[in-house]
Design goal:
Blueprint lengths: L11 E6 L4 E6 L3 E6 L19 E6 L5 E5 L4 E4 L6 E5 L5 E6 L4 E6 L4 E5 L4 E4 L1 E4 L9 E7 L2 E6 L2 E8 L2 E6 L1 H4 L7 E4 L6 E6 L3 E8 L2 E10 L4 E7 L2 E6 L2 E6 L8
Parallel strand pairs: 12-16
Antiparallel strand pairs: 1-2, 2-3, 4-5, 5-6, 6-7, 8-9, 9-10, 10-11, 13-14, 14-15, 15-16, 17-18, 18-19, 19-20, 21-22, 22-23
Length: about 260
């Protein structure tokens, strides 16, 4: 961007908004930009170690209020709830691919080397987590997103929506055939819950569709718009949903989703 007060780049990986309307934006290859929903100036925050640059790949608020940041080359960083203090640096010198909520106190930590861990918020410890299928998915399958909807964990995969069942040290994927047969192409990039019975779903670089959830079943309502870009993450603030995409920061209405602006 030409504007020095704008974001430091267009490829936005993750967003975090705290209870004071502070906006933290992880920009690919640039680090972490900081702003406020009521202003348009985005200074950059200093990294954990100024002499060692790192890219933020994931940001997640724990049930405790602490913020976890996954990085491209500096492992997992624990911040205080206002992100003004670094609490610890777990598994440094590694790349974290993604962080996702599995349960209230359990966070899935996906590593770039293919390994998966479970972060326990109550102890700030990591334990190994094995991913497995019930046989309906291929042995090697693409995971685009983990998400909780109505208290239940799901995964958006290259083969469609999968329901998740957690066991001791393992996580089992089961394809939801009822949901996936309503999609023209079941390669799901992003699921965006906007209410207990409504959620837009993006198919990979194709389109955004509105779905409803009634009587434990999903129903496709309509196509919202075409989306020839990847949505990396979404964050809701009141009646606005902010989309972090490879083409910049967009927003859509939460009560009546329309084309992003």
């Amino acid at each position: 961007p030409v504007d020095p007060h704008s974001l430091s780049g267009n490829n936005i990986r993750k967003l975090h908004i705290d209870d004071r309307d502070h906006l933290f934006v992880a920009v690919e290859g640039k680090g972490l930009d900081f702003g406020n929903l009521h202003q348009v100036v985005f200074p950059s925050l200093p990294p954990l170690k100024p002499e060692k640059a790192f890219g933020i790949t994931s940001m997640l608020r724990c049930a405790s209020g602490e913020i976890l940041c996954g990085t491209r080359n500096n492992g997992l960083i624990r911040y205080s709830k206002n992100m003004d203090t670094v609490l610890s640096n777990l598994i440094p010198n590694t790349e974290i691919r993604r962080l996702s909520h599995l349960s209230q106190a359990g966070i899935i930590v996906e590593m770039a080397d293919g390994n998966t861990w479970l972060y326990h918020d109550n102890t700030a410890r990591l334990t190994p987590l094995k991913l497995q299928t019930d046989g309906a998915l291929p042995v090697q399958f693409q995971i685009n997103q983990f998400i909780r909807f109505n208290g239940h964990p799901y995964a958006a995969t290259g083969d469609g929506l999968a329901e998740l069942k957690a066991g001791k040290g393992h996580l089992t994927f089961s394809i939801n055939k009822q949901f996936n047969r309503r999609l023209d192409w079941p390669n799901i990039q992003q699921i965006i819950p906007i209410s207990p019975d409504s959620l837009p779903v993006q198919t990979y670089y194709t389109a955004l569709y509105l779905h409803t959830f009634q009587n434990n079943r999903f129903f496709k309502v309509r196509e919202i718009c075409r989306t020839p870009y990847a949505i990396n993450q979404s964050t809701r603030v009141k009646n606005v949903i902010y989309l972090a995409t490879k083409q910049g920061l967009f927003k859509i209405g939460a009560t009546k989703p329309d084309e992003p602006v």
